[in-house]
Amino acid sequence: MKRITLLAILIAGCSRSPQTKLPPVSLPDVSPVVQSTAREQLRSAYSALDAKIKNAATPAADLGNSYGEMGRLLMAAEFTVAAEPYFQNAEALAPSDMRWPYYLGHVYRVRGDAVRSAAAFERALRLAPSDEATLVWLGDAYLNQDRAAPARDMLAKALSANPRSVAALYRLGRAAQLDRDYPHAIEYFERGLSIDPRASILRYPLAMAYREAGQLEQAEAQLRQRGDADVGPVDPLMRQLDALLDTAAVFEKRAIDASKTGDWKTAAAYLRKAVELEPNDAALRHKLGTALSMAGDARAALEQLEAAVRAAPENVDARFNLAQVLVSNGRLDEAITQFLDVVKRSPKDLDARFELAEALRMGRRPKEAVPHYEFILKADRGRADAQFGYAMALAGAGRFAEAREELKEGRKVHPERPEFGQALARLAAGDPRR
Amino acid sequence: MFFPSRHSRPSCFSCLLCLWLLPACNRTPAASPSTNEADWFTDRAAAAGLDFVHVSGASGKFHQTEIMPPGVALFDYDNDGDLDVFVVQSQTGGSRLYRNDLQIGADGTRTLHFTDVTEASRIKTNGYGMGVAAGDVNNDGCVDLYLTYFGRNQLWRNNCDGTFSDVSKASGVDDGGWSVSASFFDYDRDGWLDLYVGHYLKYSLEGSMPCLGMSGRPDYCLPSAYQPETGHLYHNNRNGTFTDVTDAAGIREFGPALGVIAADFNGDGWTDFYVANDGRENQLWINQHDGTFKNTALLSGSALPADGRAEASMGVDAGDFDNDGDEDLFMTELTAQGNNLYVNDGRGSFEDGSVRSSLGPASLGYTGFGAAWSDFDNDGWLDLLTVNGAVVAGEPTLLRQRKQLFRNLGPSADSGHAPRFEDVSARAGNVFQLLEIGRGAAFGDVDNDGDVDVVVANNDGPVRLLVNNIGSKNHWIGLRLIGGGRDLLGARVEIIRETAPTLWRRSRTDGSYASANDPRVLVGLGASQAAPDVRVHWPDGRTEKWTKVPIDRYTTLTQGERPVAPKPGTGGGE
Asked: How far is B332 from chain A (nearest CA, A)?
C-alpha cells in the first residue's frame, strides 16, 4: 500500500494556537499486517484523526486525545517508531494529560533510549506524582543510566504508594546491588519474594547478593529456585493496550493471562478465537490443545493436538503433549508411538524418554522399557522416579535380583520415597507386579 | 512448559533456496561517506579491493537463518607475514578468500591491496554459510579454516602451498544442523588444537515458523520458538581426525549458542570456555584437568546479568580490561538490554559491571553482534568496538544501526576504581555513521603498523575494512607466540613494565561473532619508550621470560627458546 503521509498543518482557529508547530505524522505501511481486522482498525483510526486535523474547529484537547489514541493503537501494534510523533502531538495539545508523556516514556524505553525515557516519565510524574507505575518505570530508567540515588528515591515513593509493590522492591534491590550494599539488597529481594513467591526473577539477583555476602548455601538454594517470572508494576495504562487490537496474538496474550490464574476455560476460549483467525498455526493449536486438556476436555484437546502434530511434525512439544493426553485416555499404544517419535527426534530429552518408559511399562512391555530407564539413569543417576520405574521394569521382565538391588539402593539414596521400601517388601513376598 | 512458542504460520522456502544456487553476487558496494585521515578509523575496503557483498537470500518469508550471517576471518594463510581475509557468503560457492598484498614503502607508507584468490585456493564452500574459525589443526605451521553453516560444516586443511583441501568428512567435524561460532583451543594440553562448535537452534526451512507480532505483522521469531541444538566438543586425535567427546567431557547442557570464547577464567593455567546463548543462561565451562568440564556460570555470576533476566547474548570476548591479570567477559545484547560486562575477580567469579562501566547504558539503543577487546589507541587499556544491527524486520528504521567504539578511560574514583568507558563513536570516523546490519567482525593488524584494524561483515551489505589511524601514534609491542610450528593459542603474556603496572594479554583467534581474529598479541605502551620484559605462560603450563623485548615492532617468541622458569605461585613450570 502506498505510504500515506499527513502533515499536521497549523490551522488557525479559536481552539488551537497558531503558534503551535506540531511534528508531522504518518500512517506506517500497514500492508504487512496480515490480519485484516488489525489493518482496518489502524486505517480507520487514522482516517478519523485525519478528519479532525482537517477540521479547524476541532478543540485542542479533542485533537490531542485523537493523536494519543492513534499513538496507543500504533504502540499496541508494535509500531513504536511511528507512534512517537503522535504522542508528542498529543502531549503538546493536551499538556495536562499524563498519559501521553507516560506512553512516550515506554516508546523510548523499548527502543533503549533511557535518557529520553526518563525525561518523559518525569513529565508524566509531574502530572501524577504518586502513580506507582510511573514511579517504578522512572526508577528503572534511572537504574539503566547508573543513577542509583534518584532511582532509590522514585522506588521508595512507589513503595510508599503501594507497600506490596514487588516491582519496586525488585528494583530497590538492584539499586542496592549497584551500590554493593548487599545486606539491603537481600532484604529487598527477600521482602519481594515473601509477598509474591512466584516472582522467580528475583532469585538470581538474590543469590548473587547472598554470594557477595559470603552466604554460599543460601545463594545456591536461591539458584535452584530461579526462574523467569518477571515483575512489572501495576500498570493499568499499559494493560489497556492489550485490549485495543483484535488479533490472534492479542487473543493468545489474553489466554496466557487467563492461564496464569488457572482459568483454563477462558484461556481455551481466547485460543479458539486466535485459531479462527490463524487456522494453520500449529503452535496455536498446540496451545489450544493444552488449554483444553487442562480444562478437562480431553476429546477436544486430542483433536487440536493431533492437528498441531499434523501441521508441524517436528514440533516435539506438541507431540509430547499429545502423547500425554493419549496416556490419560488409556490409549497407550498410540501414546507409545508418539513418545517414540519424540525420543527419536530428541534423543537427549530425558522427560520424553521417561514418559516413554513409563508408558511401555504400563503397557506391559517392561523389557522394552528397561533400556530407556537405563539411558536416563546413566545421564542422571539421582532421578528417583526413573530408578523406581527401572526397578519395576526389571521385575516385570523377570530380572528380580537386579530389581531388588535397584530398590535397595533407591531406598538408601532416597529415604523420603517410601515406594522403594514398599516395592521391596512386595518383591520379597513374591509378587512384584501387584 | 505451557505456551512454549510464539505465534506462527507455515512458510515457503523456495525463493531462499533458489538464491543459494545463484553465483556469488557482484553488486557494487555502497560507498562509505567521505573519508578523512584525521578520523580514528577509515573504511578502505573498496579501495583495497575487498569488494565482497553479502547476500542473505531473504525472500520475505522471515526464515530465521537469513538474519544471522555472516562472519569473517583474518588469518595469514600464505605465511607471508600479513593478514588475509576470508568472508562468509550465504550461498553456495560465494565465500571468498582475499590475499593481502600489503606493500610497505621505504618511508613506511602502507599500501593495502587484496586479491581474490578463492579459485586458486580451491576452497569451495557449499551451503548457507554462517561463520568461520581459524587454527592450525595438524601442527604443520599453516592455518586451517573451519566453516560453520546452516547445514554441514566444513574443515579446509591448508596445504601450505596456497591451496586447501576439504577434509570435513575425514576429520569427523562435519556437523550438520545449525552452527554459528566455533573456537579452537587446546583443552588437554597435548599440544594439538581441539574444537568446540556452538550450535544454535533446531530449525528447518520446512518447519519454519515466521512469528506474528501483536498486530499480526510477520517477523523473525524469538529463539525461544525453537529448541536449542546440541553443541560439540571435539578432541584432536593428532592424526587428522577428531573425536566427539562432548558427553564424555560432561558437557550436557546446551543453549542456543551464538558466541564462544576460550580462556583461562579461573587462573589455574588450564583453558576453559564460555558459551554465549541467545535468550538463555550463558555457560562457563571450567576445565577440570581430566578431560571434563563443569558449568559454573550460575554461581560464578556469568550466566545472567545482575537483574536475573536472560538476555540475547551474541558476540563475546574475554580480555583484561582493568589490567588486574584476569580475563573479563564482554558480550553484546539486544536493543533495550544493553551489552554486558562481567568483571572477573581472578578466581572465575564475576560481578556484573555493565552499568558501572557505562558499557550497558551506552549500548541500550543497539543490537550488538561482533565485538572484541582491543587497545585501539595503544594507551595500555583495552577498548571495545561493537558492530550492530537489529534482528527484527518490523520497523525498518530500527534494523540498520551504527557501529560503536568505546574508549577505556582507565580507573576513576567515582566508579570504585574500575575503568569506565566513553562512547567515542561520534569522533571515530565517518564509517561509524553508516547504518548497516553488522554481524561478524575480525580484529587484527591488517597493515602491520602496530595497531588493530577491523574487518566488518554486514548482513546483506558490503564488507568494511576499518583501518586504524591513531593507534600507531603511541608505542607498542607486537608478539607472535609460537611452538611446535604454530601459533600457541591460549598463551598468556605478562608485559612487565618498569614504570607502570604489568599488562596481561592472550593469543587467540576466537571470540567476537562467527569470526576469527589475528592470533598475534599487540600491546599498547602509551608514550613509554622503555622496552618491557615479557613472561609467556604457555598453554601447556610452562612459562618463559624474555627481557627487553623491542618496541614498535613484531617479535616472534618461540616456546623453548628461554630456560624454563617456574610458574609463580605454582611451583610448576615443567
From this structure: 14
- The reply to whether residue B299 touches residue A223, judged by beta carbons under 8 angstroms, is yes
Between positions 404 and 423 of B, the ones with CB within 8 A of A are 416
Residues 123 through 182 of chain B touching chain A, CB cutoff 8 Å: none
**Chain A interface includes B356 (CB < 8 A):** yes
Inter-chain touch A226–B298, beta carbons under 8 Å: yes
Judge contact between B330 and B371, C-beta under 8 A: yes
To 10 degrees, the CA torsion angle through B185, B187, B188, B190?
A: 10
**Residue A37: exposed, middle, or buried by beta-carbon count in 10 A (0-12, 13-18, 19+)?**
middle
**Residuewise pLDDT in 10s, chain B (574 residues):** 233 332 332 233 233 333 333 333 333 334 444 445 578 999 999 999 999 999 999 988 899 999 999 999 999 999 999 999 999 999 888 999 999 999 999 998 999 999 999 999 999 998 999 999 999 999 999 999 999 999 999 999 999 999 999 999 999 999 999 999 999 999 999 999 999 999 999 998 877 766 878 777 888 988 988 889 999 999 999 999 999 999 999 999 999 999 999 999 999 999 999 999 999 999 999 999 999 999 999 999 999 999 999 999 999 999 999 999 999 999 999 999 999 999 999 999 999 999 999 999 999 999 999 999 999 999 999 999 999 999 987 776 678 999 999 999 998 766 667 899 999 999 999 999 999 999 999 999 999 999 999 999 999 999 999 999 999 899 999 999 999 889 999 999 999 999 899 999 999 999 999 999 999 999 999 999 999 999 999 999 999 999 999 999 999 999 998 755 444 443 333 3
Domains of chain A: 32-129 (1.25.40.10), 154-233 (1.25.40.10), 247-346 (1.25.40.10), 364-434 (1.25.40.10)
Asked if A226 lies within 8 A of B209 by C-beta distance, the reply is: no
Alpha carbons B555 and B552: distance in angstroms, whole number: 10
pLDDT above 90 coverage of chain B, percent: 82
- Residues of chain B positioned with their CB less than 8 A from the CB of A37: 216
Nearest-angstrom CA–CA distance, A276 and B359:
46
Q: Please give the model's pTM, rounded to 2 decimal places.
A: 0.84
Q: Do B360 and A111 touch (CB under 8 A)?
A: no
Report percent pLDDT > 90 for chain A.
Answer: 73
Cα end-to-end span (Å), chain B: 52
Q: What are phi and psi of B122, to 5 degrees?
A: 70, 15
Q: Which of B1, B2, B232, B252 to mutate to test the interface with A (most CBs of A within 10 A)?
A: B2
Amino acid type, A117? S
Residues of B in contact with A223 (CB under 8 A): 298-299
Cα–Cα dist A121/B156, whole Å: 55
Facing A281 at nearest CB: one of B7, B336, B395: B7
Q: B310 contacts in A (CB within 8 Å)?
A: 228
Distance from CA of A52 to the nearest CA of B (A): 25
Task: Answer yes or no: do B308 and A203 touch at CB < 8 A.
Answer: yes
- List, as own/partner pairs, every contact residues A62-67 make where C-beta atoms lie below 8 angstroms and the sequence separation is at least 24, other chains included: A63/A16, A63/A93, A64/A89, A64/A90, A64/A91, A64/A92, A64/A93, A64/A94, A64/A97, A64/A100, A65/A90, A65/A94, A65/A97, A67/A25, A67/A93
Distance CA B510, CA B183 (A): 5
Which of B203, B211, B215, B299 has the highest number of chain A CBs within 10 A, making it the mutation to test binding with A? B215
Indicate the residue type of B95: S
Q: Are B155 and B144 in contact, with CB atoms under 8 Å apart?
A: yes
Residue B230 has its nearest CB partner, among A144, A180, A348, at A348
- CB–CB of A77 and B217 under 8 A? yes
Most B-contacting residue of A315, A325, A377, A380 (CB-CB within 10 A), to test interface: A315
